[in-house]
Amino acid sequence: MSDQKNLTRLLQLFALAGLALLFLVPVIGSRALVQDLFGVLTLFILAQNWNLLAGFAGMVSVGQQAFVGVGAYAMFACVILLGLDPVIGIAVGGITAMILAIPMAFFSFRLAGAYFAIGTWVAAEITRLCFAQWKALGGGTGTSLPKGTTKTMFGVPEIKSWLGGSSSAASDALTYWLALILALATLIAAWLFLKSRMGLGLQSLRDNEEAACSVGVNPTRLKAWVFMLTAFGTGLCGALLFIQITRVTPEAAFSVVDWTAFVIFITVIGGIGTLPGPIIGVIVFYFLQRLLADYGTVYLIVLGCLGIAVMLFARRGLWGLFTEKTGLELLSLRQLPPEENQAH
Amino acid sequence: MSILTLKSVSKSFGALKVTDAVSLDVQAGEALGIIGPNGAGKSTLFNLIAGNIKPDEGQVFLEGVDVTQRTPMERVHAGVGRSFQIPQPFNHLSVYENLMVAAQFGGAHLGREAGLFCMCILSETGLEACARDLAGGLSLLQRKRLELARAMATSPKLILLDEIAGGLTDGECIDLVKTIRNIHSQGTSIIWIEHVLHALNSVVDRLMVLNFGKILMVGGVDEVMHAPAVREIYLGIEV
Fold first, then answer.
1. Which of A10, A74, B15, B27 has its CA 20 to 30 A from that of B226?
2. A342 pLDDT exceeds 80?
3. Domains of chain A in sequence order
4. What's the pTM value of the predicted model, to 2 decimals?
5. Which residues of B touch A203 (CB under 8 A)?
6. Which CATH superfamily is domain B1-79+157-239 in?
7. How far is the C-alpha of A213 from the C-alpha of B81, rounded, in Å?
8. Could you say which of A213, A334, A339 has the minimum Cβ distance to residue B72?
């Protein structure tokens, strides 16, 4: 028992050291590494949001790319049409995505299971087609951020004078740190939410909806909250992603493969319904990508096979397998009875 | 004052009338037992009271308020707690967490006070030792107790117990009866569906017999148990 506690401590220390190292990457690492890790962090944010939605609230959405796209377009609109700083555009992107979630929830909540999945996908496609009509932002062919926007955005000159190097490198460092902060905030917010009264209600709904209703849990209200909050997080991430990409097209912003399919893969192999799952998933995904980058389609075939294998042999993903074998837990959601709380 | 009133409530599933013009009045603090052969419509009656299904005709009143159109969730808040015939625990939550859901959403308990309240119920129902165990791994007896404990955690004025003594040994049954008596003595109204008659009869004030969705008879325990019609239909004894 105390052995296990020590091991858990060790694991926690390991995680903290990793986190500190991640914060230092733009200072000590190469620019290519910063860009790679930016991709990893943003995928993690998307995966953790999807995990909350599907793994904890039981809403298997295939339409999360709608919120990525809307977040990205809202940010572009802020910069191009209103002349605002891209960093402010990120916040606007998140809020806009949350507003889009209201009508989307209104329609898709009438559906359940596979129908819900298809419904959200259709809603995302409709959103994509609508944005392709927006002439001021380039219509179907998309548009780019005005030249130099990212070099002068909030914080970039300061970072440049501090780190040295080019403005583009400073802009990469800024988006990287923003992604790291957002990833951390997402993880902590998800943990706090799941540990709260509402989170417990959500887990009871996932286990048995009928029983949850007969002890007073309101399923629609809880699910609506989760749907809105994850749309917010996904929208923020979408806006951030396209600051770094600097160019937006309807196809790229609303890509079901990039922003939902990979995200589902990451969550499933890492461990759906566990908080550390998406972390493990995104690490595995990153190394597979590095390893197989030169082999073209073989890469996707390997990903698919791995996904199927995990679904068949380790339903709770790699993290689930790990906790099952070792009994170790990180970010545990257990609530302890009051007496034992006092003892610690 | 009556806690629950049913006014000629009917419900059909297709051509089958499972609840046929049932009218019933349960006083505050009363314990009513319901017996009847399998398929008599006992569990359906519970679903109608708890709001899991809506009646085709008739009305349901809780403390004089018409709740016929209210959802199960709203009826929990109005004071109806229920246990399911087949235990339905939240498998991936601990026993303690199972109760915390009920106490925080069904009852108006919050934070630390909710935790202490749940521990009280757990010790009352003999589940204290497995408070931290996952509900999915419990034995049948423990699951039945959890059903009862979770219903209690919503602080109900009226508690519906569905065959909670079925499948238990005599010793386990005695403990359970003690717990239910205790709940009753604290002023909670009870409606209890049960086939284990000796357990049921040692708690309830009145018995109601259902047969083919209709009330066959309502009365004191002795009166009902000795009625020839009940003995014939329910117990299958030729008189």
1. B27
2. no
3. 2-334 (1.10.3470)
4. 0.88
5. 90, 92-93, 97
6. P-loop containing nucleotide triphosphate hydrolases (3.40.50.300)
7. 11
8. A213
Give the pLDDT band of residue A225 (cuts 50, 70, 90): very high
- Three-point CA angle B229, B231, B236, nearest 5°: 110
For chain B positions 20-39, those within 8 Å of chain A (CB to CB) are none
Query: Which chain A residues have a beta carbon less than 8 Å from that of B90?
Result: 203-204, 207-208, 211-212
Q: How far apart are CA A134 and CA A130, in angstroms?
A: 7
- Adjacent-strand bridge partners of B60: B6
* Residue-averaged pLDDT of chain A: 92
Among A86, A91, A133, A130, residue whose Cα is nearest residue A246: A86
Is B17 in contact with B213 (CB distance < 8 Å)? yes
CB-based contact (8 Å) between B84 and chain A?
yes
Q: Determine contact: B77 vs chain A, CB below 8 A.
A: yes
Query: What pLDDT shows up at residue A122?
Result: 96
pLDDT for the residue numbered B63: 94
Domain boundaries, chain B: 1-79+157-239, 86-155
d(CA A164, CA A157): 10
pLDDT digits (tens, 9 = 90+) for A242-262: 999 999 999 999 999 999 999
Element (H, E) at A231: helix A219-245
- B-proximal residues of A, 175-204, CB under 8 Å: 197, 200-201, 203-204
DSSP A330: S
Instruction: Output the CA torsion B55→B59→B60→B61 (10° steps).
Output: 170
pLDDT of B239 strictly over 70 = no
**Predicted complex ipTM exceeds 0.90:** no
Tens of pLDDT, residue by residue over B150-183, are 999 999 999 999 999 888 888 888 988 999 999 9
Higher pLDDT, residue A293 or B75? B75
**Closest residue, chain B, to A200 (C-alpha):** B101
pLDDT at A1: 53
pLDDT at B118: 95
Say how many C-beta atoms besides its own lie within 10 A of residue A194's C-beta.
17
